[in-house]
Amino acid sequence: MRFMMIVKATEDSEAGVLPSAEQLDAMMRYNMELARAGVLLAADGLHPSSGAIRISYPEPGGKPKITDGPFTEAKELIAGYTLIEVKTREEAIEWAKRMPDPHGFGGGQIELRQVFEPTELTQDQEAQAKQYEMREHIQRQNP
Question: The pTM is what?
Answer without folding.
Answer: 0.84
